[in-house]
Amino acid sequence: MTFMIFVILTAKYLRLRQASMLAAFRSLLNSENKKEKFSSTLLWVNFFALNRAQVEQCAQISGYARFWAPFLSMVFPYYICNICYLAFLAVLDESVPFHNRYIYAAITVQMAPFFLALIEQCAASVRLNGAISGQCRRAYVLFSRQIFFNESRKKIKSTRSSSSAAAALLLLKAESFQDARRFHPYAFKVLPMRARITSRTFHSVRGKSAKCKKHFTI
């Protein structure tokens, strides 16, 4: 239980950092999008500064994920087996006395929230990386719209500068649509299959727990 609290605190720390990074991306893109006079150079510099910070943050996520992977690989089978077995004793095993079923149900209800909290906090890394990837695609759309539709006639005077701006936008487009694949490794995982802990894991476990609780209540 103590180690679970440490893992949850670690995932919560990373979640707060990612949420701060996401807010910085949104603030930058929203502020520039509302301006009548668009500064593509300033946005470009700030955007790449945030990307460098995001790369450092992904390295930190990878380090924590490697550190906690052996523990998570032991915790997941332990909690799944115990919760399933206790739910079986509380709901399906007719040989268990009725008053003992409430004890097994109480233990199950006590274990399930900690397990769900662990999954939810670990899955936040994947969810927030996906949100940051969406902001990168927003940046590409903003760059292309503002440069080609608002600034091409005013500031881009030479063919050379126009081609360089187009090349930069094509590079940004390629990078932004590769974000989902590049962010894929940066998540908490369970060995030996290296399966990622995602929101799908959380909804799957929560759905099965809800079915057991409904069955017991009836």
Explain what you see.
The protein has about 220 residues and is mainly alpha-helical. It has one domain (about 1-215). Helices cover about 85% and strands about 0% of the residues. It has helices at about 1-35, 40-90, 100-150, 160-175, 180-185, 200-215, and strands at about 190, 195. A two-stranded antiparallel sheet has the order 1-2. A hairpin with a 4-residue loop joins strand 1 (about 190) and strand 2. The longest helix is centred in the middle third of the chain and has 54 residues, at about 100-150.
Essential attributes:
elongated; single chain; 2% strand; 218 residues
The number of helical runs is 6
Radius of gyration: 24 Å
Average pLDDT rating: 76
Give the N-to-C terminal Cα separation: 31 Å
Low-confidence stretches: 156-160
Give the CA-based shape: elongated
Q: Care to count the β-strands?
A: 2
Label the structural class: mainly alpha
Structural domain tally: 1
Tell me the series of helices and strands, N- to C-terminal: HHHHHEEH
